[in-house]
Amino acid sequence: MNTSPRYHGLSIALHWLMALLIIGAIGVGLSMGEMSLSPLKIKLINWHKWVGITVLGLAAVRLLWRMYARPPALPATLPAWQTGAAHAMHLLLYVLMFAIPLSGWAMSAAKGFPVVYLGLFPLPDLVAPDEALGDTLADVHSALSYGLIALLVAHVAAALKHHLIDRDDILSRMLPACRRPR
To answer: How does it sit in the bilayer (predicted)?
Structure first.
């Protein structure tokens, strides 16, 4: 168990980098969803795929790092239900950081569109082309993404509640160079 009151600097950097990438991927995903096929849509799809694969790789790094650099303990004053909710939310966030990019990658393969990371590195197809499977995976990818949006809203709301209402250090220990609220 981490006895420090704060997360390690690498944990903080990975958290905020991934937050920006995930929010960007969600924004691009939502904006391109209803677009008609065009060069811009194809460009956005590729950017979305590249960010997704980057998130997948960073999620693996983050999970390995978390096993090494354990997070700081939650305050002992936190009610048991909040501790349980925090652990469940973090577990679900990690599951989705893997499941969403993998479902998108598999969907792309099933629809017959390879993933070429950054336009340079072709990635192996996770499944064989199959239009019906591609449609199912598109629905799965979308449902998981909306689930992630809901979890992110709850995550941010909980962090803000701790910071602004409870005035504890739950949020500040994940902020770069932040002091505890007074």
So the answer is: Multi-pass membrane protein
Residue 13 φ then ψ, to 5°: -60, -45
Successive 10-residue mean pLDDT values, the chain, 182 residues: 79 96 97 91 96 98 94 90 95 98 98 95 97 98 98 96 90 77 48
The CATH fold of domain 9-166: Fumarate Reductase Cytochrome B subunit (1.20.950)
Lookup: tokens for 125: 């197809």
- Locate the domains of the chain by residue range: 9-166
Kind and range of the H or E run holding 43: helix 39-68
Using the CB atoms, write b or e for 55-81: b if 16+ within 10 Å. Answer: bbebbeebeeebeeeebbeeeeebeee
Report yes or no: 28 and 51 within 8 Å, Cβ to Cβ. Answer: yes
Confidence (pTM) = 0.91
Contacts of 62 (CB under 8 A, 6+ apart): 11, 14, 15, 18, 97
